[in-house]
Amino acid sequence: MKLTLMVPGPTDGTRRSVFGGAGGLIEPEARRARPGTAVVCAPEPASVETAGTVAATTRPEVIHRLSGPDFGRWTGLSAEQVIERDAAGLQHWLRDPDARPHGGESLAGHLGRVAALLDQFAWPDAGAVIVASAFTVRAACVHALHADAVSLLHLDVAPGATATITRNGTTWRLRTLTR
Fold first, then answer.
1. Torsion of CA 100, 105, 108, 111, to 10 degrees
2. Is the pTM of this model over 0.90?
3. Strands across the sheet containing 61-62
4. How confident is the model at residue 179 (pLDDT cuts 50, 70, 90)?
5. CA dist., res. 6 & res. 179, Å (int)
6. How far is CA 60 from CA 38, 43, 99, in A?
7. Fewer CB within 10 Å, N or C, the chain?
8. Confidence class for position 25, pLDDT limits 50, 70, 90
9. What pLDDT digit, counting tens, does each position of 131-160 carry?
């Protein structure tokens, strides 16, 4: 089993380091999956738009459990704004993967949701392409590495990056992470 994970290209939100709400693509990239390859995506606009260009012959399936983390009160705020409004909360969130100072989803919660989807979803034998936010692709890579949730903050995954994870039986492995 092989899954190719793609991060959409840059958006206004990713350029401004906005929590959540990344918006639509600024620089769409022309990428194509092999004909007949299943393409699934997160519900965010940039993921749906990218998946539409990737799917050569099929309509991408939107899977809501692939969405990026819920940042609660921080959604739509830039990192600079969060520092101004909730510096202590941000520091807590960066140190404790179970912290939810914004009222949304913790890092551990996001990792658990993505891991459960990877482990339980009926992926096609031929594999699939997944288009999702950098945070969700990070979570898939961290799960494949069997690392803990704090590792989500130690893995750089840029807009346009691609990762490949493979599974033999019940064990996921990170094969590649490129940009």
1. -160
2. yes
3. 61-62, 38-41, 128-131, 2-6, 162-168, 171-178
4. confident
5. 10
6. 7, 11, 33
7. C
8. confident
9. 999 999 999 999 999 999 999 999 999 899
Closest CA to 130 of 145, 115, 142, 140: 140
Residue 53, CA distances (Å) to 63, 133, 136, 146, 147 in order: 17, 16, 20, 31, 32
- Structure tokens of 46? 């940039």
Question: Is 90 exceeded by the pLDDT of residue 130?
Answer: yes
Residue with tokens 């609660």: 72
Kindly give the pairing relationship between strand 38-41 and strand 128-131.
parallel
> What is the overall mean pLDDT for the chain?
91
As a whole number of angstroms, the distance between CA 178 and CA 159 comes to 11
